[in-house]
Design the sequence.
């Protein structure tokens, strides 16, 4: 017979086993998985990731590298990408309102921008966020053989622009005011067909380093205050009948070319800083009487003058330089002698036409020029 103590122990074990079996039966009825002991326990599988999602790093592992572009890129970087360029020219040419609208929000354009308008009502307001153009800015109508002028009504929309590499503006009715915030160096400044512009004060923050060109500026009275770099190579001014002075060219040192056509100059007053000027062309200066100013400049290689009815000398009086190689004179009826700046000894090409006051060209005939022609006059 079992004693009382052993009987109690056996009873307790039986009760424990019965309770465990009941628990498993209840779990099975509920659909719960059976519990496992610690030795057979496996790590739980991670939850499934959504399709296309990048893998999630686990503790103690390196973060996976994704080739997918960062969606949180800075807005400016997106805008720079959106301001595309032509793969062949390196410039972005826009001709329609829809093309202008596509640039809305752009701040930096890493190339040139050519706005070629045929519609005078083209609205540039979508460009109001544009700050920098790393190439040229050209605003002009497409060139046509008919030369029917099409003028853009306004540059409004470019008020925020701060920097361009070069600037060309042609055919704008309401002036240059919206470009007043521009500053810094530009290689070229070309302004054409801008009625109503009397001076260049709105572009006073610019400095031109290579080419300065003005054409069809009927109301222009003054050149300043645009700064011209000492190394500027070329100045061309045409169809500016109200321009009576070259004040504003101060600071030029070694200008290569000066071309003046249909201007209101009464005298040729060049900046004192100028030390050389190889090429000079002056025509249509109805009030100009003398080129004596050129006598102080050595190294004039080419001189072309024409349609200057009051011109009486070519700047050679008092000049001992012998540099002039090409001389062309036409329609200067007040000239009676040919004494050009740069002398005669180096002349290789001479053309004189419609200068009825000139009666002899002996010294030119004695030069080495292979070509010498003058209407109605032959060397003695």
Sequence:
């Amino acid at each position: 017979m079992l004693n009382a103590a052993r009987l109690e122990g056996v009873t307790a074990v039986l009760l424990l086993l019965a309770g465990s079996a009941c628990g498993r039966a209840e779990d099975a009825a509920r659909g719960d998985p059976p519990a496992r002991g610690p030795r057979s326990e496996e790590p739980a599988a991670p939850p499934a990731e959504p399709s296309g999602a990048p893998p999630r790093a686990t503790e103690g592992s390196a973060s996976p590298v994704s080739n997918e572009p960062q969606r949180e890129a800075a807005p400016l970087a997106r805008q720079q990408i959106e301001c595309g360029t032509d793969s062949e020219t390196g410039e972005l040419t826009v001709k329609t309102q829809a093309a202008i609208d596509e640039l809305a929000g752009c701040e930096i354009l890493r190339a040139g921008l050519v706005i070629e308008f045929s519609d005078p009502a083209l609205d540039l307001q979508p460009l109001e966020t544009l700050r920098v153009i790393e190439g040229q800015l050209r605003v002009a109508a497409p060139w046509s053989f008919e030369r029917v002028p099409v003028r853009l009504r306004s540059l409004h929309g470019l008020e925020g622009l701060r920097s361009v590499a070069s600037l060309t503006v042609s055919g704008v009715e309401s002036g240059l005011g919206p470009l007043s915030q521009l500053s810094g160096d530009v290689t070229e400044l070309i302004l054409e067909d801008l009625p109503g512009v009397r001076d260049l004060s709105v572009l006073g923050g610019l400095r031109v380093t290579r080419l300065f060109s003005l054409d069809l500026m009927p109301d222009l009275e003054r050149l300043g205050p645009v700064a011209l770099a000492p190394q500027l190579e070329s100045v061309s001014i045409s169809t500016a009948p109200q321009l009576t002075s070259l004040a504003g060219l101060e600071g030029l040192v070694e200008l290569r070319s000066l071309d003046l056509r249909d201007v209101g100059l009464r005298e040729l007053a060049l900046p004192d800083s100028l030390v050389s000027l190889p090429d000079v062309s002056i025509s249509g200066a109805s009030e100009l009487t003398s080129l004596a100013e050129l006598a102080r400049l050595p190294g004039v290689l080419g001189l072309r003058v024409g349609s200057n009815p009051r011109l009486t000398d070519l700047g050679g009086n008092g000049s001992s330089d012998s540099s002039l190689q090409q001389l062309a004179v036409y329609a200067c009826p007040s000239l009676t002698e040919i004494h050009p700046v740069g002398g005669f000894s180096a002349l290789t090409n001479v053309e004189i036409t419609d200068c009825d006051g000139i009666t002899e060209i002996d010294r030119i005939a004695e030069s080495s020029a292979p070509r010498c022609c003058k209407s109605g006059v032959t060397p003695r």
Observations:
- Residues 276-380 form one domain.
